[in-house]
Amino acid sequence: MKTVKVLDKSFKLYIPHDKIQEHIARVANQINTDLKGKDIIFMGILNGSFMFASDLMKLIDLPSQITFLKLASYQGTNSTGSVKRLIGLNEDISGKTVVVIEDIVDTGITLEQIQKQLIGYEPAAIKYATLLFKPNAYKGKIDIDYVGIEIPNDFILGYGLDYNGYGRNLADLYVINE
Ligand code: IMP
Ligand code: MG
């Protein structure tokens, strides 16, 4: 079994690149069917979604825009410390169908923060696409429209996902070695 060492942890091959592509193709087909005729802007959430967004977009055959946003830790007086501000939006998304592209949805807290902020820009609709979804960890209320792969509550790395900033470059997905 192929393994990699990233910082202090060892990971083993979990989902190879070609399998990932099969799941992305299915998601792309769903989007191509569902969102025909809509004024679409895809919104990749950096950093983790860059590989997924890139491969997904190559299979989208609808007229659409794409932009990338980042969640930045709040620099202010907010007491919770966990509130993140969505930065980098230069496009007017009012009246458009936004498709949020995430690498992974775990508890769903991140997705909720994104939703709260996007609603303020008055898009016509917000759809959610994630490559990976941990249903057993999910506590959110948002209905995720497009899911690539459902996975158990294990720590995953590669294909854009990181461990302390490393491992995003790996073409396959890896799972932590217990
Ligand atoms: P949530 O807010 O709990 O849904 O967490 C989502 C964020 O946590 C993702 O955007 C990732 O940055 C990170 N994350 C959650 N699970 C993993 C994992 O298995 N590997 C790497 N990052 C993860
Ligand atoms: Mg992320």
Low-confidence stretches: none
User: Might you state the CATH topology name?
Assistant: Rossmann fold
Following the backbone from N to C, one meets helices and strands in this order, namely EEHEHEEEHEEEE
Summarize the main sheet.
6 strands, mixed
Mean pLDDT comes to 95
| Ligands bound, unique | inosinic acid, magnesium ion
Distance between the termini: 14 Å
Helix-and-strand structural type: alpha/beta
CATH architecture: 3-Layer(aba) Sandwich
Question: What is the multimeric organization of the chains shown?
Answer: single chain
**Approximately how much beta-strand content do the residues carry?**
25-35%
Number of strands: 10
Count of individual domains:
1
Q: Any idea what the shape is?
A: globular
Measured on Cα atoms, how large is the radius of gyration? Answer: 16 Å
Helical coverage, percent range = 10-25%
Tell me the strand order in the biggest sheet. 5-4-3-6-7-8
CATH class: Alpha Beta
Tell me the number of helical segments per DSSP (H or I, 4 or more residues long): 3
Describe what this molecule looks like in 3D:
With 178 residues, this protein is an alpha/beta fold. It has a single domain (3-72, 84-176), classed as Rossmann fold (3-Layer(aba) Sandwich). It is 21% helix and 34% strand. Strands 5-4-3-6-7-8 form a 6-stranded mixed β-sheet, with helices on both faces. Helix 2 links the parallel strand 3 (40-46) and strand 4 (64-73). The protein is globular and about 50 Å long. The model has no long low-confidence stretch (mean pLDDT 95). Inosinic acid (IMP) binds at residues 48, 103-110, 155-157, 161.
